[in-house]
Amino acid sequence: MRPHPNVTLDGAQSRTGTRFWIFPQPPFIPGYEQPDRVWLSILPDEIGSGPSDTLMYVADPLYDKQPYGNSRLPPFDGARRPAVQPGPDRHYDCLDPMSRPYLGVHAYGCIHFVLDIWQSYLGRPIRWFFDAALPRLEIVPFVDWDNAQAGYGFLELGCSRAGGSPRPYALNFDAIAHELGHLIILSEMGVPVGVSRESDFFPFSEGFSDCVSLISFLYFDSAIDRLLRRTRGNLLLFNELNRFAETSPESQIRLATNFRRMSEVTREPHDRALPFVGAVFDSIIDLYHRNLVANGCAAPRLLDVDLRDLTLDEFDRFRELTAESFLAKPLFFRLSLMAARDQIGRALGAALKDLHPATLTFNQAARAIVAAAEGAAAERLEENFAWREISGSRRP
């Protein structure tokens, strides 16, 4: 791929941030072969080679490295690949985003992109839970290992071989955002010392991290446009928003559009997280529909229908009406989705300060999120958490 030509900026423009290429979905997903150019809030003068800064740095091993674990923690002290340098204008969007050196650059850019979003929701900078011992997060962009993980001072990314060819998680925004979600929870809530593996903390961490990925994906302008065009505004269709950690165009690890309730899941953390993720997704869609009605893009009767109870014929009629309205007013669909995204994102972020890993239950987390929400967002979250059997009975 040939990146677009760089544009020389004057002094005022250069102080607005730093440009990077980021893939909203892995480049093997049809429609996402080209990355988005994004602006990160960190300034070029604040980024060193690697890239690196006061919060994080890339350590790209020259040879195979074992994944970190209880007996192995940062910093990585083995031989490294040469540190990646920015372009002549000190931005990173002049580099080939499909080259091997760009793996670390892409992971670094994704982490900053997600931090910009969630620090805005939190209203304050995120301070790493490990910063007393390790002041910076170490980013390992490639380990020959079919997994990705975040832990004490590190975020390292392996490689999926689904489909027969290597697909680095360093080019997978969902995987990176999910792992960063775990670090956000630990940094905001604290480390779960002495917490039983049966505790709700671990499935909550998985569910919250999926929500970090889902909501952060909706900050790519091109992704929202493509998502709405493909679905004609009907986000209940199977689409990019419903997928997490894509490993091939045909398979996915978890789905947000699920109808699971707490009485129907196991104790396995990812499975037990599904009702929580489903409730958050349902709430985004409910608010999106309310915003469409308010903008004159849908009939008020849409708000009186429980979409989980629609028959196939009713769903088809609903889809046709949505498609017709989308063709007439596409901008209002975009604005409606963005507003719903931020209403739920702010509630999720604000609730973390009231939660503690040693005492956390899904019921407690749901109540904190509803309390942090406002207006219709609180109403829809309360309703959907209740339907999922996460919290108490719904309002009469």
Binned strand content: 5-15%
SSE class = alpha/beta
Ranges where pLDDT stays below 50 over 5 or more residues in a row are: 1-14
- Tally of separate helices: 10
Largest beta-sheet details: 4 strands, mixed
Task: Tell me which oligomeric state these chains represent.
Answer: single chain
Q: From the alpha carbons, calculate the radius of gyration and give it in angstroms.
A: 21 Å
From the N-terminal CA to the C-terminal CA, the straight-line distance is 57 Å
> Kindly state the mean pLDDT as a whole number?
88
Number of strands: 10
Percent helix, as a range, is 40-55%
Strand order of the largest sheet: 3-4-6-5
Order of helices and strands: HEEEHEEEEEHHHEEHHHHH
Structure description:
Helix 6 (269-294) packs across helix 10 (375-387), helix 7 (312-328) packs across helix 8 (330-351) and helix 9 packs antiparallel against helix 10. Strand 5 and strand 6 (154-157) form a beta hairpin. The chain has helices spanning 11-14, 102-122, 173-189, 201-217, 221-231, 269-294, 312-328, 330-351, 362-372, 375-387, and strands at residues 18-22, 36-40, 56-58, 137-140, 148-151, 154-157, 159-160, 167-168, 243-244, 254-255. The protein starts with 10 loop residues before the first helix and ends in a 9-residue tail after the last helix. The strands form four sheets. It has a four-stranded mixed beta sheet, covered by helices on one side. By secondary structure, it is α/β, with parallel strands linked by helices.
